[in-house]
Amino acid sequence: EVNETQSYRSLIQTDASINPGNSGGPLVNLDGEVIGINVAIRAGAQRIGFAIPIDDARRVIADLISTKRLDRTYHGLRGADVKKGRLRELRVESVEPGSPAEEAGFQPGDVVLEVAGRPIVDQADFERSLLGRAVGEPVEVVIRRKGKRQALRLALAAYRSDPVTRFASRTRTATADPRREEVWELVGIRGTPVSSAHQELRRYGYRGGMLVTHVRPNSPAAQNGIQVGDILVGLHLWETLNLDNMLYVLHHPQRESFNPVKFYVLRDGEPLYGHMQIAF
Question: Model-level pTM?
């Protein structure tokens, strides 16, 4: 029940009857399509109800039914639900280095069309299509890349909650990029850029960030709580859209004056911050 001290965002207002017992039920349009989930009424008003838009609900559903949560397997693909008018598609935002998705050949910008012949329109469809599949079992995923359809073969890997063990268990060719190595040595993370189209970044108005894919044990990042899967969006006063942004802060002529360095991350959709002492 909505009262004067509570506030909700992006709800659908409806005059459909919502009574005790049917909250949580579907809100359906005249075409029989589920457009929302009924959640609240306006206290003291007549026939004013509210529903969570189904697209918002499906993003939560995708997390609840993820292979990582239910099967303890993972794919390493981060996608964004693109739903504008009749356009409904799952677009690849980033791919974790060393993950099954990288090994399968996924690239940022790919659009996932099918998994094992099942049409995919969002992350919830994608996660559901992979449930129950054994570690190492290949599955065909059809994508669209630069306007052309292409088939990839994805095999899930076992998920380990310890990020060091998880990534150490998979082999990959190291990239001899001195910028990456300097960030690794000073901060203790490896990351890949994600754009503002990522749903978590879009929600808070960030222009982009660095998805953390590795954390070195006992590094400044590890000692101050940065985790694999975090999106690093800022250091001190500056945004971190890429490695060059990070190195700008690490090479700043006044860096000693703001050490420990304040960092900002998004974790599971929530903004967090902390400080880490860096040995410049």
Answer: 0.55
The gap from C-alpha 24 to its chain's centroid, in whole angstroms, comes to 25
Please state, in angstroms and rounded to a whole number, the distance separating the CA atoms of residues 249 and 228: 21
pLDDT of residue 280: 66
Residue 139 tokens, joined: 């599955």
Q: What is the pLDDT of residues 194-241, one digit of tens each?
A: 877 777 787 788 888 999 988 888 899 999 999 988 999 999 999 999
Decide if 236 contacts 261 (C-beta within 8 A). yes
DSSP one-letter string for 30-91: TTS-EEEEEEEEBTTSSS-EEEEEHHHHHHHHHHHT-HHHHTSEE--EEEEEEEETTEEEEE
Mean pLDDT (the chain, rounded)? 84
Taking a C-beta distance cutoff of 8 angstroms, is the pair 198, 226 a contact?
Answer: no
Domains recognised in the chain with CATH numbers: 12-54 (2.40.10.10), 65-158 (2.30.42.10), 174-276 (2.30.42.10)
Angle at which helix 243-250 crosses helix 178-186, to 10 degrees, equals: 50
DSSP secondary-structure letter at 237?
Answer: T
Structure tokens at 84: 């504008």
pLDDT tens-digit series, residues 137-149: 899 999 999 899 9
Q: Which residue has the tokens 């890429």?
A: 242
Classify residue 10 as exposed, middle or buried by CB count within 10 Å of its CB (0-12, 13-18, 19+): exposed
Q: Which strand ranges, in their side-by-side order, compose the sheet holding 26-28? A: 12-14, 49-53, 34-41, 26-28
Average confidence (pLDDT) over 36-54? 79
- Cβ pair 261, 254 in contact under 8 A: no
Tokens of 276: 């880490």
